[in-house]
Design brief:
The complex is a heterodimer of chains A (115) and B (115). Chain A is an all-beta fold and 115 residues long. In chain A, 0% of the residues lie in helices and 49% in strands. The relative contact order of chain A is 0.33. In chain B, strands 2, 5, 6, 10, 11 and 12 form a 6-stranded mixed β-sheet that branches. Chain B has a 4-stranded antiparallel β-sheet with strand order 3-9-8-7, with no helix packed on it. The chains are: A mainly beta (115), B mainly beta (115).
């Protein structure tokens, strides 16, 4: 089974530009999560999708961040306009049902550098 | 507020030595408990988890962890460290019965292994 795939692995942009990160979850996983790790800090929850619906977006920092999951498959996280403090690693995770119902599988992360 | 504490930011051990990484949590009830590892250039990989039952859980790569309710701890151990264990280790919890199963992470412990 393919794992969680994230693209790009690294993005370097100027302050004020836009970046879109993509996550492809494990096939059949209805639950998709975005997390972020700012350098030196803990990995923090951003939001949770169940299929195409946002179940919990309490961790989204501000309205410059927009997450979508049209069709309930892959998800995108757009940052517009990017600020210096948005730099960090963005992780995506997915979760299925059954015996794996309480376990998140993570992707390798997308490192964002805002200059 | 729920929180996870990993008091050791950076640990160095010699290859072949034993290892213990500490994790304490602050939660109203016993949560689900996890340890993840991130090797250089890799994503977050699940090492082991505790949901219920035997408080000593075995994981991959020879790791184990012990849940101690009285101490609100879930320390990770390995009897003999290998050079390939050099990585960053994250303790995480999630709330039992929660709708999102989102994880709350500690700040991580960076493990260096000396030859």
């Amino acid at each position: 089974e393919a794992g969680v795939t994230q693209f790009p692995s690294h993005s370097v942009i100027e302050k004020g530009q836009t970046v879109t990160l993509r996550c492809d979850p494990i096939s059949g996983h209805d639950n998709l999560y975005w997390y972020r790790r700012v350098m030196g800090k803990e990995i923090k929850f951003l939001l949770h999708f169940v299929k195409e619906s946002k179940q919990d977006e309490s961790g989204m920092p501000n309205n410059r961040f927009l997450a979508e999951r049209t069709g309930g498959t892959y998800s995108t996280l757009k940052v517009q306009p990017a600020e210096l403090e948005d730099s960090g690693v963005y992780f995506c995770a997915s979760r299925g049902g059954g015996t794996g119902a309480n376990v998140l599988t993570f992707g390798a992360g997308s490192r964002l550098t805002v200059l | 507020a729920q929180s996870v504490t990993q008091p050791d930011i950076h640990i160095t051990v010699s290859e072949g030595a034993s290892l213990e990484l500490r994790c304490n949590y602050s939660y109203g009830a016993t949560p689900y408990l996890f340890w993840y590892v991130q090797s250089p250039g890799q994503g977050l990989q699940l090492l082991l988890k505790y949901f219920s039952g035997d408080t000593l859980v075995q994981g991959i790569k020879g790791f184990e962890a012990e849940f101690k309710r009285s101490q609100s701890s879930f320390n990770l151990r390995k009897p003999s460290v290998h050079w390939s264990d050099a990585a960053e280790y994250f303790c995480a919890v999630s709330f039992r019965g929660g709708a999102t199963n989102k994880l709350i992470f500690g700040t991580g412990t960076l493990l260096a292994v000396q030859p």
